[in-house]
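Hello forum,

I keep getting stuck at the same step: I have a sequence, I want structure tokens, and every attempt I make locally crashes halfway through. Rather than fight my setup again tonight, could one of you with a working pipeline run this one for me? It's a single chain of 280 residues.
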Amino acid sequence: MDHAQYFSQSSIQAANLRLHYLSQLLREQTGSIVQYGILRGFPIGFSHWAEVAVGGYLLGTYEIAVCAILEALGSPEKVLVDLGAADGIFGIGLVRNNVFARSLCFEMDEQRRHAIQHRAAEMGLADRVAVFGKADRDLPAILSEHGGEPAGRVILCDIEGAEFDLFDDALLEQLSGSHVIIEIHDFLLSDPEQAARAFDELSQRAGKYFNVYEIRDGLRDIRNIPLLRHWSDWDAWLMCVEARYRMMRWLWLEPKNQPRRADQDIDRLILDYQRRIFAV
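Reply #2:
Ran it on my machine without issues. Output:
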């Protein structure tokens, strides 16, 4: 290992240690309760896979663009369909906060499915949070039986690269009456040629049935986060880091019967959300 490689790796390790320390500091200050945003008041348990970024959850800055869109689309009469529900933070938390009436949580890991069911029951939400296995070709049938009308569903997808296989033409057409938000993981695909074209191909397929918007992470307004007002700029900005492989992006698929949004209108939606939730 040369000096440049050593410095690169050691500085990343130092940044991760600082982020972990600050996240644990926020756990102590907040009692592990989300302070701002659509998950406000939701208790965040220990996470084996995302503990380094728990500060973002507690501040409401984690995936803040997605949170802004979910707030805009949510309704106490609608159903959240959470594909790749993981710990159930969205699937349980947004039902608890009445952003959505119910959720259908799809998770391939059996241990996580049991954890979602257990936590929902603890919160008195067992009848409002339904848990299923891996999202596959049976998804339309499950949605037809349990998901209500298409216009009353919002579909959130985070399935670590499997999105490119799942969302084929047939499924996209069947989902075209609902809003769909897909986290993009082209960088996890093993074939470099497939990775290079996967996003564009998915966008083109979706464009037959939806208004398609690319949502890129990074649009932040941290000036007025109350808990960070006396922090250094280094630490305040570090709390926005989600410890990802890349700057993340999503596809927001909107039914074509809706008027198409301008890019600046989406930026305004994301920034206005942040200014409102931090205006405490």
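The mean pLDDT is 95. If your local run keeps crashing, start a new thread with the error log.
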